[in-house]
């Protein structure tokens, strides 16, 4: 089956000079009054009015076309569908496993050479292609509300004080987006923890001028480094250190990956906590240090 594209220029053939002038005028008016209609269809209507002005006037005055059901009427489509279902049946089916690494092209321009195993349809037949399953390598990691939430619990004060028993428990999260490397995820998480620890340390000390800095435990940068991709070798152990500008009074800082916060425990490598405990040691490799 071949399809041809009608050229809009062809509508200008066979018109007199007066008709061409009239057509250009009507095209301009139709574009201003009905910009939502595609140019192709406006061209069809205007061309008809210019070539057959009497018939066009009759149609506008009698509006006969309103009483005529279109061939594309919903009921016609339903009947065609029923008829088609009653008349068609599958005469052959084939399962194809396609490995894009063996073909030519990439992305959305992939060509598969079937050779002697080509698929064809005869007269009155058509092909139907159904995608059963699709798998591809993902070299980026999506972070969203299902894996970016956790709790920071900071404790301070005397052993019998409520601030030591309950602590400051705050729900936190880091920026949801698609991260290119595991190091970028580690840094985003560490920065979120740093901001919360700084806020808690200010409350515990009663000093809003306290600041913190972020680094690795034995390195300058948070580990794993931002340049380490998912395809590289490495232990990918999350490690970072928060240093306060002045001596703080926090006695402990815990990071909790609760089950009701979905899969942050799997992403961060922590223990999945089924209930909200008073004391928890969920994530390792986080050090808090006084200046």
Which properties best describe this structure?
291 residues, alpha+beta, 2 domains, 3-stranded mixed β-sheet, 7 helices, 10 strands, disordered N terminus, disordered C terminus
Order of helices and strands: HHHHEEEEHEEHEEEHE
Q: Name the strands of the widest sheet in spatial order.
A: 5-4-9
Query: Which spans have pLDDT < 50 for at least 5 consecutive residues?
Result: 1-9, 278-291
Number of H- or I-type helical stretches: 7
- The best one-word shape is elongated
Briefly note the structural class of the backbone.
alpha+beta
- Percent strand equals 15-25%
Domain module tally:
2
Mean pLDDT: 79
Q: How much helix, percentage-wise, in residues? A: 25-40%
The total count of strands amounts to 10
Descriptive notes:
This protein is an alpha+beta fold and 291 residues long. The chain has two domains: 16-87, no CATH class; 142-289, no CATH class. Helices cover 30% and strands 15% of the residues. It contains seven helices and ten strands. It has helices at residues 17-33, 39-51, 53-62, 74-87, 162-165, 182-205, 264-268; strands at 104-106, 109-111, 141-142, 149-156, 168-173, 178-179, 212-215, 240-244, 250-256, 286-289. A three-stranded antiparallel sheet has the order 5-4-9. Strand 1 and strand 2 (109-111) form a beta hairpin. Helix 1 (17-33) crosses helix 2 (39-51) and helix 2 packs across helix 3 (53-62). The protein is elongated, with a radius of gyration of 35 Å.
């Amino acid at each position: 089956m071949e399809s041809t594209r009608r050229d809009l220029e062809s509508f200008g053939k066979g018109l007199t000079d007066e008709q061409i002038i009239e057509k250009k005028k009507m095209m301009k008016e139709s574009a201003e009054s009905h910009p939502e209609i595609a140019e192709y269809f406006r061209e069809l209507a205007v061309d008809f009015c210019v070539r057959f002005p009497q018939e066009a006037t009759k149609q506008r005055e009698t509006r006969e076309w309103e009483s005529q059901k279109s061939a594309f009427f919903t009921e016609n489509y339903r009947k065609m569908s029923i008829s088609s279902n009653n008349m068609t049946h599958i005469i052959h089916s084939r399962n194809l496993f396609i490995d894009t690494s063996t073909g030519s092209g990439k992305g959305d321009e992939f060509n598969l050479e079937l050779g002697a195993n080509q698929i064809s349809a005869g007269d009155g037949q058509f092909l139907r292609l159904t995608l059963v399953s699709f798998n591809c390598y993902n070299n980026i990691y999506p972070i969203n509300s299902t894996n970016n939430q956790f709790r920071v619990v900071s404790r301070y004060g005397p052993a019998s004080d409520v601030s030591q028993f309950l602590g400051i428990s705050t729900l936190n999260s880091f920026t949801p987006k698609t991260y290119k490397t595991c190091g970028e995820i580690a840094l985003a998480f560490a920065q979120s923890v740093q901001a919360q620890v700084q806020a808690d340390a200010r409350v515990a000390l009663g000093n809003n001028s306290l600041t913190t800095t972020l680094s690795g435990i034995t390195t300058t940068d948070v580990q794993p480094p931002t340049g380490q991709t998912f395809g590289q070798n490495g232990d990918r152990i999350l490690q970072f250190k928060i240093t306060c500008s002045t001596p703080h009074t926090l006695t402990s800082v815990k990071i909790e990956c609760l089950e009701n916060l979905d899969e942050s425990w799997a992403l961060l490598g922590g223990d999945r906590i089924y209930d909200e405990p008073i004391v928890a040691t969920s994530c390792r490799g986080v050090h808090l240090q006084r200046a």
